[in-house]
From TrEMBL:
Gene3D superfamilies xrefs: Tetratricopeptide repeat domain
Biased composition (Acidic residues): 819-833
Stretches with biased composition (Basic and acidic residues): 714-734, 807-818
Repeat positions for TPR: 231-264, 270-303, 483-516, 551-584, 585-618, 619-652, 653-686
Keywords: TPR repeat
Protein name in UniProt: Intraflagellar transport 88 homolog
Residues covered by region (Disordered): 110-131, 714-833
Superkingdom of this protein's organism: Eukaryota
Pfam family for this entry, one: TPR_16
Organism the protein comes from: Oryzias latipes (Japanese rice fish)
Polar residues bias spans: 746-762, 775-789
Alphabetical list of PANTHER family matching this protein: INTRAFLAGELLAR TRANSPORT PROTEIN 88 HOMOLOG (PTHR44117)
Lineage: Eukaryota, Metazoa, Chordata, Craniata, Vertebrata
Length: 833
């Protein structure tokens, strides 16, 4: 309490608050005489404080004398100068010294904080490359560079160069280890570098399919306990055994890797489990594979595993398992945002620019590919299990459609319905297919267009061109940019012989989809009908660039070159066709004809003989070969060909007469006589046979001569009467036609020729060499079509919701005749005559 001061009532509580020290009163300094006098003296002429020469606020700064000594100045108050030092005394270290300031600066000197006036810096100490440590560092850098070069070479596709770089890196790394051992620094071996070298070398061995070397290199890494986590590399070893189809060892190494990876690495363990399931699937152990895939679908479901699970249950025939697996498949989350975010919702230009920028970026493309793959797996799984999960495939499809409608893939339900109709087509149940497709007429435009395209195709195959035209129009109205609908519309116009209009539809289809091969093929055929051969050739050459090694396209090109008169080019293109289909008898026969036209008889004989070997029933080929051997006086060789013609056309007497003629020319008169006698028994009124019988009997002195002569006279008389009757009939019919033309103005109706029955060759040459006689055998006519066994003039096709097959460009459609009706009767309607 003694320190407590109590206020007295008389004491003023606020006394002293207005008192202040006059030293701090600066407003009257200008009127202070003493202060102004001090400023005029030397005390007031001290150097001004600058940033270069900092000093204390109160103390004076020593001035340098002529002898370099400093004399501290006394302050105006008489206190010692702060920071002043005696000569020779070291100034204490302060933070200012470190910034480059010094108190020993000479008069007239300036502060050089950057050292610009100190002269050149001393040269750096040179590296001694002969030192062991320097050699080791250089070698390590070379090894790292080689590893990087090896990886870059593999990424560019040069696996052999990558392997060479990896081997060189291994050699240099071993030299580096020896260098460290020699220098006594073996304890400082870079294990990370050794691990990188060995791992890269093993990978390059594996990429070059040198599996034993890769396994040995992986073993070196795995057995070295100094490396971290070498057990993971057993996954790579399991992959190699899988490539070698050594499935038991692959499972062994996968399980070893699974045991050495902790549960913290969940994704890695799931991938290894998936590999194990795939190996079991390859081994046919479907139950074990189902166990692995079901575990994955519970822990971390994905589309690929779900699809594999469906396949395994299908292989075991478990209906409930297939249904359960399909439900798990369609419930897998894709983790893809709704596409509505890419639709501009406001008029903000900056926002729309951002949306346009991300609409086609790599992330969006990845999402789109992921979604397309999921839809492909779901559609394939549904088509696979639909006939197996119920008593009929229609009930199975209905169940799959119901499940898909209740999932996130609602839009696939319509595609499944269309696949149901396509399945009806494969089973030749056209009525059910038509009924199924007609249910889509009131659906949205995309599905309606697809269904109408398929309906148009069906009616086109049934030759109901009016209905085909109607549904083609419906498909075009639903989606004007559907190339399949435009091609079908062009086909219906083509059969009506309105080629100009058909060409317009085919051109529009190509504008909408430049890879529509059907439209380009049909456009070329249309130009051929219009006799625009150069334009047709241009179309087929473009198509050949798209569809490499297509025998149909190359046949069309060869035919066009033949019509243009360039036989050498035609032969070259047909040789390309032979390289693709070496056993096609029609192509071989056409090559023989072209070589014969060029005067190359030996080449023509070769190709005609090859054609006969593969197809010994072609009358034109048989005729040419028989005529060739007759012309070259090898009658014995010609006999076999004419005997073959006799078997093919037994009612044609000319082939039997040619056989007898060959025997007669070769000097075998007895055999010739027997042949003529057989012919006479089959054809007793044949005048030519009787003439040769009379001649041979006379030459051989047979007693049947008179009998044959009597029959010959009778046959000649009968033939003469028949010829007169035919002649009189022709004259009367010609007079009747003249009278009808004079009495009426009738118009002849042209005969429509279906494009399905058109020949690939020029129709103007179709009548050459048709009629032949036994006495005068000429070379075969040029009207024989030489396309391959299944060329088609027009391709009507349906749309597959899963997309086109891999062997043709993506047009959203595929040719049914080739893919879905192979080797069936319906495909014959698309063959030319």
């Amino acid at each position: 309490m003694e320190n407590v001061h109590l206020a007295v009532e008389d004491e003023d509580l606020y006394s002293g608050y207005n008192d202040f020290n006059s030293t701090f009163f600066t407003e009257e300094l200008e009127n202070d005489i003493g202060f102004q006098q001090a400023l005029r003296t030397s005390q007031g002429r001290r150097p001004l404080m600058t940033a270069k020469l900092p000093g204390t606020a109160i103390g004076g700064r020593p001035l340098a004398s002529s002898f370099g000594s400093r004399v501290p100045l006394a302050s105006s108050a008489g206190r010692p100068v702060t920071g002043a030092v005696q000569e020779g005394a070291a100034r204490p270290m302060t933070s200012i010294r470190a910034a480059g300031y010094t108190s020993t600066m000479m008069r007239g000197s300036t502060l050089d904080t950057l050292g610009q006036h100190r002269g050149p810096a001393p040269p750096l100490e040179g590296k001694n490359e002969d030192a062991p440590e320097e050699k080791i560092k250089i070698m390590e850098k070379k090894v790292n560079d080689l590893i990087e070069e090896s990886c870059m070479a593999y990424s560019s596709g040069t696996s052999q160069l990558a392997l060479e770089k990896a081997k060189e890196a291994r050699r240099k790394e071993q030299a580096l280890v020896r260098q460290r051992e020699q220098s006594g620094t073996a304890d400082h071996i870079n294990l990370d570098l050794t691990y990188s070298v060995l791992l890269n070398l093993a990978n390059q061995y594996e990429h070059n399919e040198m599996y034993p070397e890769a396994l040995n290199t992986y073993q070196v890494i795995v057995k070295n306990k100094m490396f971290n986590n070498p057990g993971r590399l057993k996954v790579n070893m399991g992959n190699i055994y899988f490539q070698q189809k050594n499935y038991p060892k692959a499972i062994k190494f996968y399980r070893m890797a699974l045991d050495q990876i902790s549960n913290a690495h969940k994704e890695m363990r799931i991938k290894i489990m998936q590999n194990i399931g795939v190996v079991f699937l390859r081994m046919g152990q479907y139950s074990d594979a189902i166990t692995s895939f079901e575990h994955i679908m519970r822990e971390s479901p994905n589309i690929t595993t779900g699809y594999n699970l469906v396949l395994c249950n299908y292989a075991t025939g478990d209906r409930e398992g297939m249904k359960k697996a399909f439900q798990m498949l369609i419930s897998v989350p894709l983790g893809i945002d709704d596409e509505d975010k890419y639709i501009p919702a406001t008029d903000d230009s900056s926002t729309n620019m951002v949306i346009d920028a991300i609409k086609n970026d790599k992330l969006y493309q990845m999402e789109r590919d992921k979604k397309a793959q999921a839809e492909k797996y779901i559609m394939t799984a549904a088509k696979l299990i639909a006939p197996a999960i119920e008593t009929s495939f229609a009930s199975g499809f209905d169940w799959c459609v119901d499940m898909v409608k209740a999932s996130q893939y609602v839009e696939l339900a319509n595609d499944l319905e269309i696949n149901k109709a396509i399945t009806y087509l494969r089973q030749k149940d056209f009525n059910q297919a038509v009924e199924t497709l007609k249910t889509f007429e009131k659906k949205d435009s995309r599905v309606k267009s697809v269904a109408a395209t398929n309906l148009s195709f069906i009616y086109f195959l049934e030759k109901d061109y009016d209905q085909a035209d109607r549904y083609a129009d419906l498909a075009m109205n639903a989606n004007r940019y559907n190339p399949a609908a435009l091609v079908n519309k062009g086909n219906t116009v083509f059969v009506k012989q309105d080629y100009e209009k058909a060409a317009e539809f085919f051109k529009e289809a190509l504008k909408n989809d430049s890879s529509c091969t059907e439209g380009l093929y049909n456009l070329g055929l249309t130009y051929k009908r219009l006799n625009r051969l150069e334009d047709a050739l241009d179309c087929f050459l473009k198509l050949n660039a798209i569809l490499r090694n297509s025998d149909q396209v190359m046949c069309q090109i060869a035919d066009l070159y033949e019509q243009l008169g360039d036989l050498q080019q035609a032969i070259e293109w047909l040789m390309q066709v032979i390289s693709v289909t070496p056993t096609d008898p029609h192509i071989l026969a056409k090559l023989g004809k072209l070589h014969n036209d060029e005067g190359e008889k030996s080449q023509a004989l070769h190709y005609y003989s090859e054609s006969f070997r593969y197809f010994p029933s072609n009358i034109n080929v048989i005729t040419w070969l028989g005529a060739y051997y007759l012309d070259t006086q090898f009658c014995e060789n010609a006999i076999q060909y004419f005997e073959r013609a006799t078997l093919i056309q037994p009612t044609q007497v000319k082939w039997q007469l040619m056989v007898a003629s060959c025997y007669r020319r070769s000097g075998n008169y007895q055999k010739a006589l027997e042949t003529y006698q057989n012919i006479h028994r089959k054809f007793p009124d044949n005048v030519e046979c009787l003439r040769f019988l009379v001649r041979l009997s006379t030459d051989m002195g047979l007693k049947e001569v008179q009998d044959y002569a009597t029959k010959l006279k009778k046959a000649e008389k009968t033939k003469e009467i028949q010829e007169q009757r035919v002649k009189s009939g022709r004259e009367s019919s010609s007079r009747g036609r003249r009278g009808s033309r004079e009495g009426s103005a009738g118009v002849s109706t042209p005969v429509l020729t279906s494009p399905m029955k058109s020949s690939i060759t020029d129709s103007s040459n179709s009548s050459r060499g048709e009629r032949r006689s036994g006495k005068n055998i000429s070379l075969p006519a040029s009207n024989e079509p030489y396309e391959s066994s299944s060329p088609k003039e027009l391709d009507a096709y349906y749309v597959d919701p899963l997309g086109p097959p891999t062997e043709r460009p993506k047009t959203g459609a595929k040719r049914v005749v080739e893919e879905d009706f192979a080797d069936e009767d319906i495909g014959d309607d698309l063959l030319p005559e």
